[in-house]
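Per your request, structure below.
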C-alpha cells in the first residue's frame, strides 16, 4: 500500500483514501503526511501558540510557506526551496520560532530506487541544485558516476526535490521534537 510501512497515516488522510498510492497528492508523496512547519518552528508548542495570522505566508520570498490543515502554515517544497531568509521568523508575533542560530529543520532526504543513477542512466540534477554539496558523484571506470550522500551537510532546504526528473528524492523525517 504505502511505500514506507512505518509511516503513520493520519485519520483524515485515510478517510480521503490516501492509503492507496495512486490517490496520494504529489506533496504527500514527496514530503510524507507529516506537515513540515516553517524553518525554526518550535514544534513542541507550534499548534498551541500559532495564531494562524498568515504573516509568515505573506512574507515568504519563495512562496513555499502555504496555508495547511486548520489554517496553520506549512511548507510545500513543490513550490520551490527555502532560502533561510528568516522573514517568517521576523514577521511572527506569536513567538513560535526557535533561535535562528539553531538548525532550521531535522528532516533530511533519502534517495529512492527510481533514481536514474540507480537505473543506470547518468543524471546529476540533484547535485547541480544543491548549494550544500550533499550529493557527491564519484567517476566510475567504464560506467556512470556513483552517487554518495553527505547527509550531515543537508540543511533540508528542498532545492533537490523539484529538479529530480523521476521524483526519486523524498524527505525523511527524523525524530522532530523542535527542541
Amino acid at each position: 500500500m504505502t511505500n514506507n510501512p512505518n509511516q503513520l497515516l493520519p485519520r483524515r488522510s485515510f478517510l480521503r483514501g490516501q492509503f492507496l498510492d495512486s490517490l496520494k497528492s504529489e506533496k504527500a508523496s514527496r514530503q510524507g503526511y507529516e506537515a513540515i512547519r516553517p524553518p525554526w518552528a518550535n514544534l513542541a508548542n507550534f499548534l498551541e501558540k500559532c495564531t494562524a495570522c498568515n504573516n509568515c505566508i505573506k512574507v515568504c520570498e519563495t512562496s513555499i510557506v502555504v496555508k495547511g490543515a486548520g489554517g496553520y502554515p506549512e511548507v510545500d517544497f513543490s513550490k520551490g526551496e527555502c532560502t533561510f531568509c528568516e522573514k517568517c521568523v521576523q514577521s511572527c508575533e506569536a513567538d513560535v520560532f526557535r533561535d535562528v542560530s539553531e538548525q532550521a529543520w531535522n528532516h533530511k532526504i533519502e534517495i529512492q530506487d527510481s533514481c536514474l543513477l540507480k537505473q543506470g542512466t547518468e543524471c546529476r540534477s540533484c547535485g547541480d541544485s544543491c548549494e550544500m554539496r550533499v550529493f557527491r558523484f564519484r567517476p566510475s571506470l567504464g560506467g556512470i558516476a556513483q552517487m554518495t550522500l553527505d547527509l550531515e551537510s543537508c540543511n533540508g532546504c528542498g532545492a533537490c526535490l523539484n529538479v529530480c526528473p523521476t521524483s526519486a528524492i523524498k524527505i525523511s523525517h527524523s525524530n522532530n521534537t523542535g527542541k
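Strands lie at 65-67, 73-75, 108-111, 135-138, 146-149, 169-172.

Regards,
D.
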